[in-house]
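Preliminary data (for renewal application), NAP complex.
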Amino acid sequence: MTAFERYDAVVVGAGFAGLYMLHRLRKLGLSVRVIEAGTDVGGTWYWNRYPGARCDVESLEYGYQFDPELQQSWSWSERYAAQPEILDYIRHVADRFDLRRDIMFGTRVDSAHFDDGSNDWRVITDRGARYQARFCIMATGCLSVPTWPDISGADTFAGETYHTGRWPHEGVDFTGQRVGVIGTGSSAIQSIPIMADQAAELFVFQRTPNFSVPAQNEPMDRELEALVKANYADFRARNGQMQSAFGARHPRSEASALEATEAERQRQFEHHWQLGGLLFLRAYGDLLVNPEANELACEFIRDKIRSIVRDPQVSEKLLPDSVVGCKRLCADTGYFETFNRPHVHLVDLRESPIECITPEGIRQGGQDYPLDALVFATGFDAMTGALARIDIRGRKGVALSERWEDGPKTYLGLQVAGFPNLFTITGPGSPSVLTNMLYSIEQHVDWISDCVDDLRRTGLTTIEPAVEAETAWVEHVNEMAGMTLFTHCNSWYLGANVPGKPRVFMPYLGFPEYVARCNEIRERGYEGFVFG
Ligand code: FAD
Ligand code: NAP
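Predicted structure:
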């Protein structure tokens, strides 16, 4: 058996989080080994190459801010960058900071065990490599494990099968094909209009109609870019004061939708519809806390759908009946318009679910839909999925899966009691997916780096949360979610998309106060943490 190769830190994942973590730890003089399942850097943007994939946070905000020169030198071509450009950017960062030499690609971490004797983590990969390190940092991503629904006969399908989160690198040409898409989440809504351009016939299998607002994507406004670049630090600082760390140019109105007149409301909603995408939810301050206010926004979007989709039977089926913003609002380019095309068909699974997949296609409601290709746009085992797929064991061999049997428990989304020196970047219990992820990733990486540095300078060996601090934090996370409408639908935030997953609201609704809290905790000598 090969011996354990020693490093100061092991980082799992080479997306935005893993790359910046490597950069920071190197600056502290630590030896680092990064392990990445993909064959290159990029994470989300390496795996999600489906047509139409792009960010829903403006490009000028969806990038690193740690290096002013990088920020100045990079130029985005669109208001919302598409996947190839974001991947180019991440590759550029990897080259610019010479990061690749410390990354082991094409390698999956199978296990990470804390060794009580040495106070080190022992990490083993699927290729048999063995690493031992004082710090183990999970940069494994919130949306990195695709879910394939358990539909009978799925493995019998004779045509090609794809998942949006595992798209072939060489791309797919659907020209002349009959294509089926399962799902109507963000990934489906971005890709359907483009797949419709190619396919001879496109069948959209919709279980839950979704809210979507046009992204209003456009070529980068060079004047705006110059303006932002002239004072990027200020722009970023304003981002840090926003509730979700993006949209610095469009702060949320604090007014109540219920107090406006009908005409004012229509104007305000229309203005925010024109701003596009996630900014729609900034129209009023109470949209995500007051069901009546929310319903007004829902009705505005439903009216838009009715006005866009010409066939009233189809538009009726596309009308979402839940709470807008409860699931992540989708940002599209021509999604609803696509249903006006004669070769695009909506199959409503609420009338009758998919019975099975056959070698020829999908059977639903007693009807067979012959298909050449089937696209699963069915989402991810979010926030805990990647961690659950690693055999992680803390003190005395206790498994993380056991500790998290009833849902994830962390302190600040950064650490777990009983798992010393294990850090989770944008882990459950942190603002993560409710914010501009780039901002939250950098904030976590900076905090973890400072913590590692503090430990080394003070000669301490381990840090982990006190159980009481962790318990109080978990309660606080739930309490915050309970004050909003986020618990009023079956979203992946709640784990509701994965059969058997405990129904717990996983991200923390408390940005930007969260950042100040993390800083204060450190300033007070890591309040709530214990050292070894
Ligand atoms: P990831 O990019 O997911 O990287 C994690 C890496 O860890 C992956 O490469 C994975 O292969 C690797 N890994 C996991 N487990 C293991 C293991 N056991 N062994 C080895 N390697 C492992 N966020 C926004 O803020 N704005 C957006 O516009 C936005 N758009 C998105 C669009 C899509 C299609 C998706 C899926 C997500 C989007 N997100 C967006 C969220 C996005 O995930 C984050 O913005 C960000 O890219 C996450 O970076 P990360 O490094 O934390 O995780
Ligand atoms: P998703 O939002 O979870 O959507 C999955 C879709 O698949 C849902 O419509 C779901 O229906 C459907 N589905 C799942 N299992 C099914 C089954 N057995 N039968 C029929 N339908 C089924 O996943 P996603 O679209 O990949 O997006 C996930 C997240 O990634 C987003 O919320 C967002 O945070 C991020 N993302 C962002 C962008 C962007 O705009 N930048 C783009 C893509 C992804 P139900 O609703 O009924 O469960």
